[in-house]
UniProtKB/TrEMBL annotation:
Gene3D superfamilies: Spore Coat Polysaccharide Biosynthesis Protein SpsA, Chain A
Record's protein name: Hemolytic protein HlpA-like protein
Top-rank taxon, per record: Bacteria
C-alpha cells in the first residue's frame, strides 16, 4: 500500500481500536491522525479522548505518523473541516476513516486503484466505500457514479478538497437563483436540501459533510460508489454524534469483499435509479416507505 490514511478520532477508544486494527493490517506508509478535544461539560470525556489517542502509539509497522490534536473541543464541523484542511496541506490524496467506520480489507486497494485512475479527472470528487442499495446491484461493473458523497470511509484528492468552503459563501446567491431546481426534478427533494443547506449555513446543524455535499454539487462533482458495501458503521448508539439509534437501517451494515480485478464502467454517467433510492431512503423518508422496509425485514 502506498496511499496515506487519515484517521479522525474523538472519544471512543473501543471503536477506535477496531478501526485502527484494520488500518494496521493495511500498513499505510503515512498515517495522519486528527483528534478533537473533550467537551468541558462531559465528565470523563477527557480520559476517553486520551485513551483513543493512546491507541495511535501502537503503530508497529514502517509508517510516518503525523498528528493534529486539539486541546479544546471544536465540534464536528470545525474539527473535521480544519483537520482535513491540514491533511491535504500535507498530502495530495488520502483515504479517510472516522473512528466508527470499520472497513473490509479490500476497501484500501479499491480506493487506491481509483485514486490513481481518476486522479486528473475533475468530474470525480470522492471515492466512497459505502453502498446503501440494500442488495441491488446497479450495473455489471465494480462501481457506479452518484451525486451522493457518502463519507463512512472515503478517499479524495487535494484538487477536490480545495473547493471546500466552510462558510458556504455562495449559498444565498445560488439559493435565490433556484440552483437546486437544476439538480432535482421533484419539489420534495428541492425543499429537503434547501432546508438542510440553509440550516447548515445558519449554524443550526453542526456538521461538515453537508457542506462537502454542497461544495461537490457546486462543481457538478460525482462520487464513486462500490456495488458491494465495503465499510460498516459500528458507531450507532448513545455516544454517536449523529448516529444515535441502533435500530437505524444503516447501522452495522456488513462490510463485504470487493473482487479484483476491478471492472470499470465504460462511461462516467450518474446512476439515476441508485440516486433515487438513496434520496428516498437516506435523505427523505415517507412513513409508507419506512413501513415497507420494516415489512421486508431490512430493519
Amino acid at each position: 500500500m502506498k496511499t496515506p490514511v487519515a484517521f479522525l478520532i474523538f472519544n471512543r477508544p473501543d471503536t477506535t481500536e477496531k478501526v485502527f486494527e484494520a488500518i494496521r493490517q493495511a500498513k499505510p506508509p503515512k498515517l495522519l491522525v486528527v483528534a478533537d478535544g473533550p467537551r468541558p461539560d462531559r465528565p470523563g470525556e477527557a480520559e476517553k479522548c486520551q485513551a483513543a489517542r493512546e491507541i495511535i502509539k501502537q503503530v508497529d509497522w514502517d509508517c510516518e505518523v503525523l498528528t493534529n490534536y486539539s486541546d479544546v473541543n471544536l465540534g464536528c464541523k470545525k474539527r473535521v473541516a480544519s483537520g482535513l484542511d491540514w491533511v491535504f496541506e500535507n498530502v495530495e490524496e488520502a483515504i479517510i476513516l472516522e473512528d466508527d467506520c470499520l472497513p473490509h480489507p479490500t476497501f484500501f486497494p479499491f480506493c487506491e486503484e481509483l485514486l490513481d485512475k481518476y486522479r486528473d479527472d475533475n468530474r470525480i470528487m470522492t471515492i466512497s466505500g459505502d453502498n446503501f442499495q440494500f442488495g441491488k446491484t446497479r450495473n455489471k461493473d465494480s462501481y457506479y457514479f452518484s451525486r451522493y458523497n457518502h463519507c463512512w470511509g472515503w478517499a479524495s484528492w487535494r484538487r477536490a478538497w480545495q473547493h471546500y468552503d466552510i462558510e458556504m459563501k455562495n449559498w444565498e446567491k445560488v439559493r435565490d437563483e433556484g440552483w437546486l431546481k437544476d439538480i432535482f426534478c421533484d419539489s420534495s427533494s428541492v425543499k429537503y436540501w434547501e432546508n438542510i443547506f440553509q440550516r447548515t449555513y445558519e449554524g443550526k446543524i453542526d456538521t461538515w459533510d453537508y457542506i462537502w455535499t454542497y461544495c461537490c454539487w457546486l462543481q457538478n462533482g460525482l462520487t464513486i460508489l462500490p456495488n458491494v458495501n465495503l465499510v460498516s458503521n459500528i458507531g450507532f448508539g448513545n455516544e454517536g454524534t449523529h448516529t444515535k439509534s441502533k435500530k437505524n437501517i444503516f447501522a452495522n451494515i456488513p462490510a463485504e469483499e470487493m473482487r479484483f480485478l476491478l471492472q470499470h464502467p465504460s462511461f462516467v454517467i450518474r446512476n439515476e435509479k441508485a440516486d433515487s433510492l438513496t434520496q428516498r431512503t437516506l435523505f427523505y423518508k415517507p412513513i409508507i416507505l419506512i413501513r415497507l422496509i420494516k415489512k421486508l425485514g431490512i430493519i
